[in-house]
Amino acid sequence: MLAELRIRNVAIIESVKVPFGPGLNVLTGETGAGKSIIIGALGLLGGGRWSADDVRTGTDRATVEGEFHARDNADVLAALDAHGIEAEGGVVTLRREVTASGRSRAWVNGTVVTASVLAAIGRTLFTIHGQNDARALLDEDSQRQMLDRYARATGEARALADAHAGLEESRANLARRVARRDDAEKRADYLRHVADEVERARLVTGEEEALEGEAARLAHAEELTTATAQMSEALDGSDEAVLTRLGHLQRLLGVLQRIDPSAAKIQAAYDAAYYAIEELAREAAAYAESIEHDPARLEEVQRRRDVIFRLLKKYGGTMERALAAGREARAELDALDTAAHDIGAMEAAVRTSETRVAEAAQALTASRARGAAALSRAVAAQLPALGMDGGSFLVRLVPHESPRATGAEWVEYRVALNVGHEDRPLARVASGGELARVMLALQVILADMERVPTLVFDEVDSGIGGAVALMVADALRAVSLRRQVFAITHLAQIGSRAAHHVVVRKGAREGVTSADVTVLDGDARVDEVARMLGGDPASEVSRAHARELLGAQPPTRQRRARAG
């Protein structure tokens, strides 16, 4: 249970420590006094969002800390153990902090955790049912999810959602393959033409450059022959040729070396030059022999270049793109040849997925049917105690034509809140107060099932009053015999049934608005219940009415919540 909530520098709250006890705890106070801030602060310990705007003006950080006692709660201890957190003596302390710059941090028993871990542990300790929960009950998704929780069918619901997602993927794969086949069939003639044309051309990477060089040599064969002949003659073809003249130089080198042996190094340079020019002459002669005067070959090369130019122009401008176009066209034609086999396999996969969906939906429907009958009985049993004597509640399953991701049926909550009337959809029948009471019954039933130790109800009294309010108060007190209940209320009837009564008051401290929290006992509690009744707390008539609601409760001293 929640033993103490400590809040510092949150909104208009400077510093309070609010003690709570077992049973029914109520929080009362004038509108705007700060009750919602306390609930909001508790929500932060459950992983709720907050920002720098929540930090009290003039301070650098805000903190919320909750101390819970969970010695015998296996779910809480298991959640702590899953994250390697110890709980000495069963005490669990949740803490959150946000700075004025917006940075947020969280701790569990002194261990730094993420907001998601804080939320996971917080969910095992308490649940908050807000003012909007009742309206959410009108939503079909909310009704379905609530039934699945009660029927313990959330796992089956996820299994169906996964199976349905698999079916949708199989259908999408089949549709894409059929579309590819149909497109290929429409383009088959064109694809065949592309593939055949590129393949017949036998294109080779680099061929274009090689042909360009060969064409240039063939087209200028005479010029090349003349130039190489002149080069050969200059190197080694006459008495004036370079090699002949170098021979004369050799005799001069012999003279130098006889007189000065150090001139031998000139011989090495001479030899290198002679051999290089000799190699040049051989290369020139070989090149001259390779030159062809072949007009037929030149014509053939030009035709080949024309073929390549035309294909490149048609299919992308480069050899690589033209070859890719041919390969892709052939791949599409091959895929068309295997389309029947591929589509058959995909159709089989769709049938298999449909079977999985049908089986998952059937299992979920069976669980929902059992849960719907049990939930109908459980809620109907709660209605008389909530001022709807003779009312009935029915969870109806309406089949779809085929299973969907959410099930083979849609879930509808139906009520008959007056004797002799047929049941109708909850959204068409219930008033605000009736809706709040049906929601209370559902929340109590679900909380009992999920074993959450602390239930928080934020203004569950919306739209009710009088004798019905007293019935709701007694229902909350009955729940508090099994769980700790914490309720924000404006109704004296609910406030009077509290085992622990806390009041929030707003005032000014040193010129700054601040909220203070007080735990009420005895006459102070009589005064607060009298105020809630709308009377003058000083009036003996109002106080007598308050005492009547409070019943025979021994007067004890007023205790103020400890200052932080």
Q: Please mark out the parts with pLDDT under 50 across 5 or more consecutive residues, or reply none.
A: 552-564
Let me know the number of strands.
Answer: 16
Mean pLDDT across every amino acid position = 83
Query: What is the fold named in CATH at topology level of the largest domain?
Result: Rossmann fold
**Total individual domains:** 2
User: How are the strands of the largest sheet arranged?
Assistant: 8-12-13-3-14-15-16
First and last CA, distance: 21 Å
CATH architecture of the largest domain: 3-Layer(aba) Sandwich
**Major β-sheet annotation:** 7 strands, mixed
The CATH superfamily label of the largest domain reads P-loop containing nucleotide triphosphate hydrolases
Structural class of the secondary structure composition? alpha+beta
- Helical content, roughly? 55-70%
CATH classification, class level of the largest domain: Alpha Beta
Question: Overview of this structure, please?
Answer:
The chain is α+β, with helices and mostly antiparallel strands and 564 residues long. It has two domains: 2-131 and 423-560, Rossmann fold (3-Layer(aba) Sandwich); 155-366, no CATH class. It has 19 helices and 16 strands. It has helices at residues 35-44, 74-82, 115-125, 133-136, 140-150, 154-186, 188-201, 207-219, 221-236, 242-259, 264-290, 295-314, 319-382, 426-429, 432-450, 466-479, 492-495, 522-532, 540-550; strands spanning 2-10, 13-19, 24-28, 61-69, 91-99, 104-108, 111-113, 126-129, 392-404, 407-416, 424-425, 454-458, 484-488, 500-509, 512-520, 559-560. The strands form three sheets. It has a seven-stranded mixed beta sheet, with helices on both faces. Helix 8 runs antiparallel to helix 12 (295-314), helix 9 packs antiparallel against helix 11 (264-290) and helix 13 crosses helix 15. 32% of the residues are buried. Mean pLDDT is 83; it is low at 552-564.
